[in-house]
Amino acid sequence: MNNLGIYGRLLSRTIVNGLYNNCSVSSSSSKNNVVAASNEAAGKLSPHLVSAVAGFPKDKSGKVRKGQIGDDAWLITHLKTADILGVADGVGGWRAYGVDPSDFSYSLLRSIDRITSVSNQWSPRNPTDLLSAAFRELLNSKRPITGSSTACILVLDHKSSKLFTVNIGDSGFLVVRKGQIVHHSEEQQHYFNTPFQLALPPPGQSGMVLSDSPESAHQSHFAIEDGDVILLATDGVFDNVPQPLLVAEMSKLGGVKDEIFVQQTANSIALMARTLAFDGRYMSPFAQRARDYGIQAIGGKPDDITVLLATVVL
Fold first, then answer.
1. Full domain range(s) for residue 184
2. How does residue 22 score in pLDDT terms, banded at 50, 70 and 90?
């Protein structure tokens, strides 16, 4: 009964101001509709993702809008040549210095969105260059931007049907095929709970702030198959939900192309992460890692939670 009460309260919050619901398919724009229609007439369907986003801010006061959940930022964009998914997790410690941690993460992904929308100079096959270009835009912005974040960007190249990835820090992704993990990101940590991160310090403070270059990010690329399920999320998910539970939820989507079902599953993963994050007696993945470092920890890790979930259609 108590568990049902918790779920009921959380569901109520998602409706009011928490869980951002947004289904998306790459043929949603008029331009892509024309492309999809011509491909269907020729007996083939353009590669694309059926995707959804869901999440919770850590606190009731956390911002929730398109592209932002608390200090997390997210991006889903569908272009003629590629589909792009991205998350960035703003470092909350900046709040103690009067800096909004969401400004950096949100601005970084908005820059990626702008570059891919208006420029032909970027390549779907090199997301590291894309991340670097977005970071340079922030560095050279007329409006001073201070802060830091992790980032994970996935690009489905329509021509090759390959997924190109770049990840810096402890956000990450899983690719599940027929109930098994076939690809996953590599977490980057300097030491426990201190992930690699892009940063823009205040003027004169560059030596005082932990900062990694976009080129230090881990990158990979691999072929994907029709029906593959992709989860891209911030550490609020991976710190609280054991991998077997994530795989079990993702496996429900194998071969599913219904955006509503994708959205429902994304909601389920976000709700699971939120519930476990505030369970003080639960041995979370985060608590287990802390114990591996000799820190006696128990319970979930309250945090912003952002889930991007997608199925592959080839």
1. 2-313
2. confident
